[in-house]
């Protein structure tokens, strides 16, 4: 299904959808805890549903309700069927670290995009820990045969923070201590901090060391009831819509949340958007005169597509950098973003780890290819709000990965969007 977007003015209130990252972690940790946990207000999207199906295949009891999931965990076993993680990198990576702790073999696969994404650093790390690994060139499909026997591992930190989260989350299952040595600087550190905070909610501690992390031995996951907060990654599209095309108040956000993507609010202020924050965590974004600047996205790479859209409307030059690992996401997000913005008339140049945009640019409607990437789809839709003519986006449904109600909620704010 295609989405057609026209120039629009927006005004209204929107609740940020539940956090995809928090939902993944909540489902997995509840499955690892011995007892019953309730996950309230989770995101029911394609990626998180893949995680929920997977923990059920690994032996967790799962009961779905309208706005919560009850999970009975602690008695996991290797899956008798191949676990299909669809398009979810978080699912396949963190669950591989979990399955590697179990006595036996578990096999994983995914769609064509997921099977092209890098897994080798994690699989090599699991092999270093004594796990038998079978893969095709370090990508899915692959199998892991546990359990883990080692207590120290070395792994790169600049490919995916999900590799580190996978090792940390799986560690307590062995009852042994684990030291993770990072051989390169860690990118997307807030996502690992999010993992550690979630583990602590379930009674497991992690120590940050000079070159990585240490998980003490003899720890058990305890059941815990968790409420999933709003997603700053998805909220960024709402903030940008307000900053570019009107006045939008975003609710359901916790300012104490460790999500790295909340830096987008500070970025909008730095660029010149009108930003107001309430004591409850609500954030209002109002259209303003934007000015270019340098933006380091090393800790918040998912913001790149929408930050690039903002950059097209800034006076002067904006340089986005620090996000080389974006080339290994659902699409090569640096190239995908540059392609659709250039087709709309933007002065944008790719770099190895980001892009340079000279603005302000007069955007015009174009035919946009999303490459099945939800963040490209939503960024292109926001760009279409300030473009002349109609922007036709080839895959409106891929936003279901992280923000299933994106189109409906944008329409409620006044966006001229229609599905065809």
Automatic annotation (TrEMBL):
Entry-linked CDD domains: EPSP_synthase
Keyword Amino-acid biosynthesis: yes
Residue ranges of domain Enolpyruvate transferase in the record: 7-409
GO MF term set: 3-phosphoshikimate 1-carboxyvinyltransferase activity
GO cellular component: cytoplasm
InterPro entries: Enolpyruvate_Tfrase_dom (IPR001986), Enolpyruvate_Tfrase_sf (IPR036968), EPSP_synthase (IPR006264), EPSP_synthase_CS (IPR023193), RNA3'P_cycl/enolpyr_Trfase_a/b (IPR013792)
Keyword terms of this UniProt record: Amino-acid biosynthesis, Aromatic amino acid biosynthesis, Cytoplasm, Transferase
Stated name of the protein: 3-phosphoshikimate 1-carboxyvinyltransferase
Organism taxonomic ancestry: Archaea, Methanobacteriati, Methanobacteriota, Stenosarchaea group, Methanomicrobia
């Amino acid at each position: 299904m295609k989405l057609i977007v026209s120039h629009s003015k927006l005004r209204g209130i929107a609740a940020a959808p539940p956090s995809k990252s928090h939902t993944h972690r909540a489902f997995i940790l509840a499955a690892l805890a011995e007892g019953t946990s309730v996950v309230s207000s989770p995101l029911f999207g394609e990626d998180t549903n893949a995680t929920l199906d997977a923990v059920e295949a690994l032996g967790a009891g799962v009961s779905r309700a309208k706005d919560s999931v009850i999970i009975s965990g602690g008695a996991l076993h290797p899956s008798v069927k191949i676990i299909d993680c669809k398009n979810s990198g978080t699912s396949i990576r963190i669950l591989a670290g979990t399955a590697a702790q179990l006595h036996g073999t578990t096999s994983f696969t995914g769609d064509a995009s997921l099977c092209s994404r890098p897994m080798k650093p994690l699989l090599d790390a699991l092999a270093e820990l004594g796990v038998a690994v079978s893969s095709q060139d370090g990508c899915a499909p692959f199998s892991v045969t546990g359990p883990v026997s080692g207590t120290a591992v070395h792994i790169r930190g600049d490919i995916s923070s999900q590799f580190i989260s996978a090792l940390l989350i799986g560690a307590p299952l062995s009852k042994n201590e684990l030291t993770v040595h990072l051989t390169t600087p860690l990118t997307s550190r807030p996502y690992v901090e999010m993992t550690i905070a979630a583990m602590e909610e379930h009674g497991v501690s992690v120590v940050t060391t000079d070159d990585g992390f240490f998980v003490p031995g003899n720890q058990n996951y305890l059941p815990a009831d968790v409420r999933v907060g709003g997603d700053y990654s998805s909220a960024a599209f709402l903030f940008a819509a307000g900053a570019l095309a009107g006045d939008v108040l975003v609710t359901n956000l916790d300012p104490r949340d460790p999500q790295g993507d909340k830096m987008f609010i500070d970025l909008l202020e730095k660029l010149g958007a009108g930003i107001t924050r309430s004591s409850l965590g609500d954030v209002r974004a109002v259209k303003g005169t934007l000015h270019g600047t340098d933006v380091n996205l090393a800790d918040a790479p998912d913001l790149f597509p929408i930050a690039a859209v903002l950059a097209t409307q800034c006076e002067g030059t904006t340089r986005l950098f620090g996000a080389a690992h974006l080339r290994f996401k659902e699409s090569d997000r640096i190239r995908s973003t540059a392609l659709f913005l250039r087709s709309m008339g933007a002065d944008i140049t790719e770099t190895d780890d980001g892009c340079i945009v000279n603005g302000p640019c007069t955007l015009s409607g174009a035919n946009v290819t999303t490459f099945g990437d939800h963040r490209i789809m939503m960024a292109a839709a926001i760009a279409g709000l300030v473009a002349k003519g109609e922007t036709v986006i080839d895959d409106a449904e891929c936003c279901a990965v992280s923000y299933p109600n994106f189109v409906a909620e944008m329409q409620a704010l006044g966006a001229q969007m229609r599905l065809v």
